[in-house]
Task: structure prediction
Amino acid sequence: RSSFCTLLDMWRTLFSQRRWIHMQQAIEELKNENADLRRRINDLRRMDTATVKNEILAKVAKVTEDKELRDMMGYVASKEPTKLNLPQLVQYCGTDAYKTHLFLHKELPIRTAIALEQLAEMPHNFAIMPSTRQVRDKLVTEFKQLISIPKPDTPATEEAFTALMKKIHAQHQEVILSLGKGLWEMKKDILAKKIKVRNQGTAWERISDDVTQEYPELQEQLDSFFAGRIAAGFLVKQHKAVVANAKRPSSRPGFEYFTGIVCSHTDLFDVCKSAVTEARAICFSHFDDCPEVILRRGRPTEQQAFFPHIPSHLHYIVFEILKNSLRATIDTHGRKHRNGKIDCSNTPPVEITVCDSENLEDVSIRVTDRGGGIPHSDIKKVMSYMYTTASINQFDSYRDTSTSGKTPLAGYGYGLPISRLYARHFGGDLKLTSMEGYGTDVFLHLGASLNSCVSTFEKEVEQHRKERHRNPKKDFSAPKYWRARREVSSADGTAPL
Result:
């Protein structure tokens, strides 16, 4: 017993010594922290008051500058954009590069300010997404550059303005992709907030319906925004082409009918042929095989019509339609081998019929596939920005689409809605009919008279002006988005505008 007590006393002594050592270490750490704190306080006391004053003045100047910029945006957005049809576009942005410079110098700030105003009126949950804020920041930077650049009336200022147009042109497609990412981010954010989700795939499909019901105005707002970006993008592309043509000593072969990117004798069959080649190349890059595409004229014996239009617009529309048809055909009929490759040898062909005869009132295209069709309940969703055939697992693979250089066959769900905007831009339309279990027909109508049709953007702006007149008390110059932006900015540490 005495030995046990002795051993117990030794353990108590050792434990007390260790506790004392730990206490001493803690005291030393506190002394060091207090010494650092006193040192920092002394540094702050010794700081030059002029430095603090300059920092405060810089912050005040930043706030003043932001307020002046908001006021400038509201003032410029209140101006009427020029209403344009194809002949007027050629008139303002035709062969004369100097005249094109001056027109865009006056017109683009108005259209960019209107785009910022439209973006500010979108739902709060969509506006605060990272990709949506990136779009807004890019447009703000673009607006600043447009209002600060000198009038392009000398060779030096013309060169600077042309360089700015090239930069804006490079960012045009990124805006559409970034807003697509913003919508996906909002849908993923809504999905993440749901407490119990057993099947994420099913829940992801229902999210689009939830967003449509919660924000019924978002579809119309995105249509208006993209119509404006299409119109502005066209003007920038036209300027780039006109300036490039002015530097060439003579016209290139095959471009004698072009004024910028407007062609007075558009060959619709040739445009479809080019779109087929590109779509099949994309399909081969993904699956190492591709269904057959049959391209034919509806009335091959009649005289072909040549009409004024923008071939790049038509190419984009046909390419997007054909891309969807090829993907649906492969998903329905393609055989997958053990090595992962797809066999398209027995898949039904995709058929494109072009009706461009001279005696027809309307020039049109029909794209027919046997890709299984679309359920009747989903027909209206196909033209919605919230709808896509891509699953939630494919989202991350599309995040870097703009930098990877590889075009996906199914992406953010923007292909058909944007194609319809391109078709409606000068009086045409895009319609879709489907037989579930069999296939889908897509009809592209290009309108009867392109010379009299004002672009969709000008119609949207005119409707917006009427809404302002009916609701004079509504404050469009400082919408709630700016307050939301300030909340988000203070949360992530960025400077609010």
In short: Confidence is low (pLDDT under 50) at residues 400-405, 472-497.
